[in-house]
Amino acid sequence: MNASEDSLAPEVRSILDAARERPGGDEPVAVTARSFPDAVAATEAAGRIPVVAEVKPTSPTTAGERTDDPVELAREMVAGGATALSVLTEPDHFGGSVESLRRIREAVDVPVLRKDFVVNESQLDAVESDLVLLIARFLGDDLSDLVTAAKERGFQPLVEVHDRDELGRALDAGADIIGVNNRDLATLAVDLETFESVAPHVPDDVTLLAESGVTSAEDARRMRAAGADALLIGTAIMDGDVRANTDRFSNATAKTELSE
């Protein structure tokens, strides 16, 4: 374990350890991806907030578990206005699976992000998706190689960062879709000021997401005002009626019309 990993919360270290044990695919996939930046632009042109709604059966930071059919949840999210979907494929801590992602992607016509903890190139080949999450803090010096490998397969890599140093490494690696995670992986605390501190340093030609901590209309307005092109929302959508919750965040303009 390196010094950076030693600072991770125990729950996060457990996730990372499990990720290192999971096999990848047998051969490289070739993906024809649905464009996430185009989907964001279309949503904004329609006067709505681009929302990436997350199919997340459970997580170490939430109570309980959703046992609904993930395909039906995904369809309801799209019906509620989701611009794209994030689908957990991590099985041990989040109740996800690559089979759920495969079924969901076949059932919807919006871009689908594979949210997992990819730590080596072969794991990119576990399943086709439109976007794949790469976490800068987990990948260290391997980040650039993984971004390149993902793009070679046709994926749109979403590189997750938490601070300006990680942002710099993501940009150097060629990332053009970046998510700023408001959750600190060392403490699991969430602070929306994290996005506000990093966003001003992101180039205009990068598609920028705010991740974690958006639980209300006020939060959504705040992140959009700070520069978020899209919002990745998990618990606040999964907790209750997913269609209504997705609509609550997406079916309004960002700064003036969104209400609680």
Automatic annotation (TrEMBL):
Top-level EC class as recorded in UniProt: lyase
GO BP field: L-tryptophan biosynthetic process
Keywords, comma-separated and alphabetical: Amino-acid biosynthesis, Aromatic amino acid biosynthesis, Decarboxylase, Lyase, Tryptophan biosynthesis
Record-level Gene Ontology MF annotations: indole-3-glycerol-phosphate synthase activity; phosphoribosylanthranilate isomerase activity
Catalytic activity: 1-(2-carboxyphenylamino)-1-deoxy-D-ribulose 5-phosphate + H(+) = (1S,2R)-1-C-(indol-3-yl)glycerol 3-phosphate + CO2 + H2O
One Pfam entry name: IGPS
Keyword Lyase appears in the UniProt entry: yes
Residue ranges of the region described as Disordered: 1-30
Matches recorded under InterPro entries: Aldolase_TIM (IPR013785), Indglycph_syn_Halo_TrpC (IPR054875), Indole-3-glycerol_P_synth (IPR045186), Indole-3-glycerol_P_synth_dom (IPR013798), Indole-3-GlycerolPSynthase_CS (IPR001468), RibuloseP-bd_barrel (IPR011060)
UniProt pathway: Amino-acid biosynthesis; L-tryptophan biosynthesis; L-tryptophan from chorismate: step 4/5
Domain spans labelled Indole-3-glycerol phosphate synthase: 11-246
Enzyme Commission numbers on file: 4.1.1.48
Family label: Belongs to the TrpC family.
HAMAP family in the record: IGPS_A
Protein name per the record: Indole-3-glycerol phosphate synthase
Organism ancestry: Archaea, Methanobacteriati, Methanobacteriota, Stenosarchaea group, Halobacteria
